[in-house]
Amino acid sequence: MLKQTGIPTGIGIGPTKTLAKLANAAAKRWQQHTGGVVHLDTPEKRDWLLKHMPVDEVWGVGRRMKEHLGLMGIHTAWELAQADAWTLRKKHSVVIEKTARELRGVPCLELDDEPVPKQEICSSRAFGERLHEIEPIREAVATYAARACEKLRAQGSLCKKVRISIRTGMFNPNEAKFAKGVVCELPYPTDDTRLVIKAASEGLDAIYRTGYAYAKAEILLMDLRQRGEFTGDLFAVEQPASAGRVMGVLDQINGRWGKGTLRPARVPLEPGWGMRRELLSPRYTTDWNGLWRVRCS
């Protein structure tokens, strides 16, 4: 990575999750000496690292915890590892106790092989300008619903409820204030973007009020379950198999050719209400257009 892009990377290997993260921090901090790799394969290496690492470099120790530990005379990772675990639990929490045990080489934290599916999925953005009509807000709601459904399908879940909410700006004293939301029940558990957009659009009709300058809309997918976890009665309606196939093709095309290649008609290509991005941070590593251009005269 360093040779190809100039971006330094670090690899940390340790007997516990906390030690591995600390080794990774050391690999980045002392790049020239470590070559970007720190392997804590001996007690001597582990102890040396703990003695030379400030306590706030330990995973899970933030600024406020650093101050609390400092009152106990704990300023390095070594001192945290040597502290009495039960005293740490009594004064702070079981998390900091487990952290101290991990620094000693006792595994207490499991590795997360796969992320736990989210219980709710939210898609929300502030508009680039105040919106006074319902149609551009409807476009925004459809766009946010499509994004939320992409995340829903990515984790293999279905949703049974969708909440749509809109609000005006809340900090300008010269603007009238309004905020409202509604929960829409879906006819069956689904990951179909079309059905969610339809429900969100109907919810928007129910809560929209004229005469306000709207600043933000939000879509929240609720009552999420993995496939097979919804238990309806024998006569309960289920999502048609054809809907799943359509959404699968949609995701395959967008995955191959880029997001937005195939999208619902309600979702505009270049919305006029989109967020202002004049101050967007450069993305040299993920966007070709963000790379510097050098002109030779």
User: What portion of residues belong to β-strands?
Assistant: 15-25%
Strand order of the largest sheet: 3-6-4-5
- Please trace the helix and strand order, writing H or E for each element: HEHHEHHHHHEHEEHEH
Taking all Cα atoms into account, the compactness measure Rg is 26 Å
Proportion of helical residues: 25-40%
Distance between the termini: 31 Å
| Overall mean pLDDT | 88
- Rough outline: globular
Query: Main sheet, how many strands, which sense, barrel?
Result: 4 strands, antiparallel
Give the helix/strand class: alpha+beta
Can you count the beta strands? 6
Provide a count of the helices. Answer: 11
Task: Identify low-pLDDT runs.
Answer: none
Structure commentary:
It is a single chain. With 297 residues, the chain is of the alpha+beta class. 39% of the residues lie in helices and 18% in strands. It contains eleven helices and six strands. The chain has helices spanning 2-5, 17-29, 31-34, 43-52, 63-71, 77-82, 85-91, 94-103, 134-154, 193-207, 241-257, and strands spanning 11-13, 37-39, 121-131, 157-168, 179-190, 214-226. A four-stranded antiparallel sheet has the order 3-6-4-5, covered by helices on one side. A two-stranded parallel ribbon has the order 1-2. Helix 9 runs antiparallel to helix 10. The longest helix has 21 residues, at 134-154. It is globular, with a radius of gyration of 26 Å. The two termini are 31 Å apart. 25% of the residues are buried. The model has no long low-confidence stretch (mean pLDDT 88).
